[in-house]
Design goal:
53% of the residues lie in helices and 4% in strands. The chain is mainly alpha-helical. The longest helix is centred in the middle third of the chain and has 25 residues.
């Protein structure tokens, strides 16, 4: 997956969950701290309290992925950047804890000040019969889906999916391109949910087994084609409702026929000795296409330097000693920063203290550049640096 695809998926997922008023625990604690004027110590204490309550179940958190997307669940391991919660969940928790504050999140904070997401409104009732909805919500659902099966004929995942698709199409705060990527994200989630349902079926005959296998094969093909859409320009699909499996396959065939393959080969990077340090902006002279975006660096270097992927994403922005490896700056809400992997390796090696630590780090780096296919274009440059300046344990 390219950096552009990763950014598009990440942006679509974030916009999708915010449309459903779902926030990571870190986002929630940051917003409350800003609202209440908390200092860094108190903000960290709030986040720690939320994580402990996540673990013991007193704070409702919601699934960030899968067929039960945004539904309440109990995670195996609580993570500040992974678990999701809503302002309503947080305020219920705050009231139970006796806190005097409430998170005053308004719809207008992230989207239009008049539109109320249907997915959010139905979530507390998604497993209940139609009669459990109040009159206003019943009327809104019937108006939105009068041409589709009745509420009581749908399962919970189908109700969620329909509401999410409706929000994508009708929230005025979402620009055309945002709506397109969100629609693609929703189509993928719907296909995944359908696959899960078919995968759970227990065939009672050879005919039913063949039907199940055929459906799973067709759904897997659709998921591959939907994934390929992230590589294509927005609005490649004009009508999502008409996007049958055959129409999608034809679109993919036409795209492959009209798009020549492109290969980007990075230019050599001059190695810089650990003893002398790395010159500022040394990597900045490289073309942007010859580096990796932030999310790819974070995933590729996950575990190196004692940082997980999330910490890498934060430190690439915050740690100035890493900035000489930055080829291009990112823009808020726009393109991601681009980094030179070999230069980052040199900077880490330069920063490590003592020969033993340098040797352990170089051993880990050598393993990444040797085994990870993402780093293959930079393997020769890293080996040149290793031969000149590095030793491994």
């Amino acid at each position: 997956m390219t950096g552009a695809e990763s950014r598009a998926i990440e942006a679509a997922e974030k916009a999708h969950r915010i449309a459903a008023r779902c926030f990571t625990l870190e986002e929630a604690s940051n917003a409350i701290a800003a609202q209440e004027g908390l200092n860094e110590t108190n903000k960290k204490q709030l986040l720690d309290d939320m994580l402990r309550s996540d673990r013991d179940g007193s704070l409702t958190v919601r699934s960030p992925t899968g067929h039960n997307l945004y539904a309440p669940y109990r995670p195996t391991i609580a993570r500040e950047f992974d678990e999701l919660t809503t302002p309503e969940d947080v305020n219920k928790w705050a009231a139970a804890r006796g806190f005097g504050w409430r998170w005053k999140y308004a719809v207008g904070d992230e989207q239009s000040d008049t539109y109320q997401p249907l997915a959010l409104l139905i979530e507390p009732l998604v497993n209940k019969p139609f009669d459990a909805l109040d009159d206003g919500l019943q009327a809104r659902f019937l108006k939105a889906f009068h041409h589709l099966p009745h509420w009581d004929q749908l399962n919970a995942d189908q109700r969620r999916s329909m509401a999410q698709q409706h929000d994508i199409q009708h929230d005025p705060a979402m620009g055309p391109e945002n709506k397109y990527w969100l629609a693609l994200f929703g189509a993928e989630e719907h296909a995944k949910s359908t696959r899960f349902e078919w995968d759970q079926k227990q065939p009672q005959s050879i005919t039913e087994l063949k039907t199940k296998e055929d459906r799973l094969t067709a759904i897997d093909s659709r998921l591959r084609d939907l994934s390929a859409l992230w590589k294509m320009p927005p609005f490649s699909v004009g009508n999502w409702d008409a996007l049958t499996d055959n129409a999608l396959a034809e679109l993919m065939t036409a795209s492959k026929a009209s798009t020549p393959a492109q290969t980007v080969t990075p230019a050599p990077v001059d190695a810089v000795g650990a003893s002398g340090g790395v010159e500022p902006d040394k990597a900045g002279k490289l073309p942007v296409g010859q580096g990796l975006v932030t999310i790819d660096i974070a995933n590729t270097f996950d575990g190196l330097n004692g940082w997980n992927a999330e910490r890498w994403r934060k430190n690439l922005s915050a740690a100035k000693w890493l900035h000489p490896a930055r080829i291009a700056r990112g823009r808020a809400g726009g393109a991601s920063a681009v980094w030179c992997p070999v230069m980052l390796a040199q900077l880490m090696h330069d920063k490590a203290k003592g020969e033993r630590e340098k040797g352990k780090l170089m051993n880990a780096l050598n393993s990444r550049f040797t085994k990870n296919p993402v780093l293959k274009p930079w393997r020769d440059d890293f080996n040149e640096y290793l031969a000149t300046y590095g030793t491994t344990e």
